[in-house]
Amino acid sequence: MSKVLVCGGGGFIGNHLVKRLKADGYCVRVADLKRNEFSPSAADDFRVGDLRDLQFTREVVDEIDEVYQLAADMGGAGYIFTGEHDAAVMHNSATINLNVLELGRSAGVQKFFFSSSACIYPEYNQLDPDNPKCSEDSAYPAAPDSEYGWEKLFSERLYFAYMRNFGVEVRVARFHNIFGPEGSWCDGREKAPAAICRKVAQADSGGEIEIWGDGRQTRSFLYIDECVEGVRRLMDSPFTGPVNIGSEETITINGLAHLAMDIAGKSLSIRNLLGPTGVRGRNSDNRLIQERLSWKPSQPLRKGLEITYRWIEQQVAICKPAQHLPTPSLP
After folding, report:
1. Active site (catalytic) residues
2. Which helix (H) or strand (E) holds 29?
């Protein structure tokens, strides 16, 4: 039985990935700052600790065949785009990747998966909300719109450098706005689908919700189960990437809010106000992943949003406060 390590396996995507890996027959170890918040982990071995720490990282990569590296200092627009966390975001995430790669290689890890982000794409290609360019070959000349994106781009190059110089296998995927149940929904790091679902669930019919920006900025969103399927196909293939894992179904942020209202059966008004929004338009270009992995999303946005809304509605109804994540800082 292959032994895999999921770095960040206590988080949203990592937790769902652990469940899939167990179903696929792997022995799974998790390394994370915290345990799962909403359900017990399916991992065989859960280690709580800081991957910025050399000794902890050395311990968790021992006797591991494959590493799925999802650990990062991250959050939604309110965390990434204010500029207040830039140094921590870059230092913490880069340190994790440097530690995991070097100590993993030294320990004999055979294959690494790295979760990159659509945030690596140049801002100059995403100024038109109706015509963004996010094909994999458009990443250069580089000009991400955030330090989070710059760190992800650096780390992509780091993983491929290790593949060239040390012969380790590497797979890199660029995630596009993954959402679903058991993700952050009210701790300050939630992303647009969860934040909007929460606002709609908490609002009385006939009331109002707030949306940052003019609401005409566009995005595509991918349900968590689709993301995990894409990751597993990539890891089981000879293709290294980088490759987009996302949806090509675009929607405005105001449109996403109206979709959540329709699911909830509520009539609400929207008040658009100033706030961090990121690029004007972003959409996954799936031509490469369809060609190399024969993968595309199997369901429309609405289906995943229905499941996510009902889960958040339950959290709101039972007044379950989302525990604030430990705020990473520079050591």
Report:
1. 148
2. strand 27-32
